[in-house]
Amino acid sequence: MTPIRPSRRPRRGSAHRRRGAAINRDSLPALAPAADFKKKLKDMGLNLQMTYIGEVLGNVSGGRQQGVIYDGRMEFLLEADMEKIANWQGGLCTWTATGSRALA
If you placed Cys at 88, which of 2, 57, 82, 103 could pair as Cys (CB 3.0 to 4.6 Å)? Predict the structure, then answer.
């Protein structure tokens, strides 16, 4: 009997996105100041991430009501490497904030 191996293909969706993906200065020169700011924070022991997810959902036929809505969500994450900041070996503090909005 052959064992079943899990797929190595990355999954899609916010739960499976890469954490801390770097801004590419060459392909997005307009974002170079943001990349520099993010690098300065990282050097101080702070990791700042912002994610925006926007979706358009619609029901074109059937049901009690047809129409389209827009749903958006902004997520902020701040991680503090306490080893760099306060010499606390292995310490990590994480703050998150999420805001959502729906337009019908």
Answer: 82
Residue 22 DSSP one-character state: P
Q: Which residues of 8-31 are buried (b: 16+ CB within 10 A; e: fewer)?
A: eeeeeeeeeeeeeeeeeeeeeeee
**25 band by pLDDT with thresholds 50, 70 and 90:** low
Which tens digit of pLDDT belongs to each residue from 37-67?
Answer: 889 999 999 999 999 999 999 998 888 888 9
**Domain spans of the chain, in order of start:** 27-59+67-99
Of 41, 49, 57, 59, the C-alpha closest to 14 is 49
Residue 44, token pair as written in the block: 């101080």
Q: CA 92 from chain center: how many Å?
A: 18
Q: pTM higher than 0.85 for the full model? A: no
Residue 91: DSSP 8-state: -
Determine contact, residues 14/53, Cβ cutoff 8 Å: yes
